[in-house]
Amino acid sequence: MGRYTGPKFRLDRREGVNLKLKGMRSRSAKHPLERPGHDTAPGVHGWRRSRGSEYGIRLREKQKVKRYYGVYDKQFMRYFRMAARLRGNTGVLLLTLLERRLDNVVHKLGFAPSRSSARQLVSHGHIYVNDRKCDRPGRLMEVGDRVTIKDNPRSQGLVRRNLEEIGSPVLQNWLTLDMTRLEGAVTALPAREDVEIPVEEHLIVEFCSQ
Predict the structure, then answer these.
(1) Has residue 117 been placed in a domain?
(2) Is residue 174 one of the residues assigned to a domain?
């Protein structure tokens, strides 16, 4: 299955959560979940948003997280297996692994308005990690890694326009940003509290363990 290319607000309506897939438009009053009468699930029977079966509830939690970070099922299961091999709470470890993805870090630094545009920045070669070009959006960042922008006017101008549109990004405790040099850094590993959507991770663990 390829990457989803349909209406992104439809995914928000399906999950009943603002997944912030549309950049600045996801933060505006135009978002369907912010408009009375438009916050139903998609489809002709969307007004009947039911609780669903036990299987369906767990599936929706997995789909919500998968769509939020923009990963395929195969990628998601690889992260789950990595988390299961580590010592600690598997659900929390899964979420923190996804938080450490390079495209998520680029987005949270304000270099891109959404994760999909951050993936495009990375795959097009605009992003450097520790002074080396990195075109893998799924690269897991480590403490001490630095994120910089390719040293050419096109790349620098693109990121500066994104920062101006977003304004001063509200950085989480595990990230730092030098606006003048367009340089970000990972100063700690992300915590469970850094995940910005409501998630019941134990349901995901139960689903993926079946």
Answers:
(1) yes
(2) yes
- C-alpha 82 chain-centroid distance: 18
Q: Give the side-chain half-sphere CA count within 13 A for 157.
A: 3
Q: Please tell me the predicted confidence (pLDDT) of residue 207.
A: 94
Query: Does a structural domain hold residue 2?
Result: no
Asked if 118 contacts 103 with a C-beta cutoff of 8 angstroms, the reply is yes
> 3-state DSSP helix/strand/coil percent for the chain, to nearest 5?
45, 10, 45
Q: In 3D, which of 208, 201, 210 has the Cα closest to residue 78?
A: 208
Give residue 29's Cα distance to chain centre.
21
- The parent domain of residue 29 ranges over 8-98+197-208
Q: What is the largest CA-CA distance in the chain?
A: 53
Q: Is the pLDDT of residue 33 over 90?
A: no
122 lies in the same domain as 181:
yes
Tell me if 139 sits within 8 A of 129, measured CB to CB: yes
Dump pLDDT digits (tens) for 69-125: 999 999 999 999 999 999 999 999 999 999 999 999 999 999 999 999 999 999 999
Q: Long-range contact list for 35-43, CB < 8 A, 24+ apart?
A: 38/13, 39/13, 40/13, 41/13, 41/14, 41/16, 42/10, 42/13, 42/14
Residue given tokens 């101006």 in the structure block: 164
> Are residues 25 and 54 located together in one domain of the fold?
yes
**193 pLDDT higher than 50:** yes
Please indicate, yes or no, if residue 3 is contained in any of the structural domains: no
